[in-house]
Amino acid sequence: MADTHQAAGPKLAIMAGGGTLPARIASAVRGQGRGVFIVAFEGHTDPETVAGLPHLWSRFGAAGSILRRLHEEGVGEVVLAGPVKRPSFTELMPDWRTARFLARVGTRALGDDGLLRAVVREVEEDGFRVVGLHDLLKDLLTTPGPVGSLAPDAEAERDIARAVEVARAMGALDVGQGAVVQQGIVLAVEAIEGTDAMLERCAGLLRPGPGGVLVKVKKPKQDRRIDLPTMGVTTVEKAAAAGLRGIAVEAGGSLLVDRAAVAETADRLGLFVTGIEIPQ
Amino acid sequence: MADTHQAAGPKLAIMAGGGTLPARIASAVRGQGRGVFIVAFEGHTDPETVAGLPHLWSRFGAAGSILRRLHEEGVGEVVLAGPVKRPSFTELMPDWRTARFLARVGTRALGDDGLLRAVVREVEEDGFRVVGLHDLLKDLLTTPGPVGSLAPDAEAERDIARAVEVARAMGALDVGQGAVVQQGIVLAVEAIEGTDAMLERCAGLLRPGPGGVLVKVKKPKQDRRIDLPTMGVTTVEKAAAAGLRGIAVEAGGSLLVDRAAVAETADRLGLFVTGIEIPQ
After folding, report:
1. Domain LpxI C-terminal spans what residues (chains A, B) (predicted)?
2. Which of A181, A186, A205, A213 to mutate to test the interface with B (most CBs of B within 10 A)?
3. Same-domain check for residues A128 and A251
4. Structure pTM?
């Protein structure tokens, strides 16, 4: 038994954001014979995520008690999974450990990748290894080429290239990961509002003729353990509702949740979804 | 009389977009003793702009008849004034001259600065001189420093610097001119939706604490004759409604319409409005 445990890997703590991704990770990792421990955040984590699993409900500001509990549970590795909406001030109200951390990184870092990078460093200084979702589930990483049966035509390819240029420039400044382009015109650039809100405003900005494309790429210097662009069925549905004709996400630099369902949804709604290779 | 006319300058054609700017220009130029001719666009130009002045109502697609008329009227200089919302396909329906033009620049250029630059070249090839609004009304150009009685504090200065960085990066890619930053976080980046729509979505994105700042800068390589960032009383009102604390616009690279009214509105609503110098 000790050998099996060794081979499967140390106990994994899942810092669980919203959506179904944390539960998928928990299920897959347990299937590999590893122990898991869920850190859930009130108002962010879906309560179903923790059903039947060892867990702790916590606030973001309670870094001290979270890390203490992970030591007690014998956790060896930590993964960040699922989106977290911007936490409120109350949720962030710091314990002494969090206060020391915030004093060091500065409250101006709150809300962008700088904060997540600092969280990763802090957790690692406590002796835990922080891993990426793609280390746990290799087939989550987007692969090159079409996901469904449709592929971009020449005009869509040009729009994709323009959107990649814009999204990469914003990513280099640690702003956003997404952009929407139609017929060469940049309709929308993503900042803190997130991809869904960006898609919602595109419907009113489309011109007649071929619909636009959504592109999501990771930030050029992004640590793949944190906040990789993620897409799933919902993204396809929202892109279709906005009148777009397709979605391109970075192969090897984004997560595709439930590939079969994404392919089915894309085919049914008449959109292409494709993985594109970006020179690093 | 001929000498006076010579000194005041040749007859000026004003390609009139929306708002009050075209009428202000017409009034100022006539005050200098110059003749004006207004080219108005249905659905875009305020009908009051042409009241009592020689003018032509036209469609964007009728480049041939517009240019012919400017020759007949003895126009020497042309200025583009006021914003133009994206024209519909019907408005763009080309005459033969416009079709030749579109065939050369390509319909993919429609809607961004590439199109306006091409329009300027086309008008100049016909023998007209295209001038900038700041050539006609020097005091329209934003000057450095506060417009009203408030000035940015240290935190607002940091937010301004961050927004300048983002807006310049987007401008370099010919996307937009504006960004909103609060406490170091980029709340919104402007694309085709325009500044007003960008401000409207900021209200829902603000966090507690000091409000954000709106920054507008010209694109790094922008021809100052076309589409300089413009701000006036409406911008101040919309920024206040969005919960922002101030506005910074590029000194020498943006137009400030009705400076006295902007200062009064900013003071009344408690916002700073300031001209910032950007190294070119």
Report:
1. 145-273
2. A186
3. no
4. 0.80
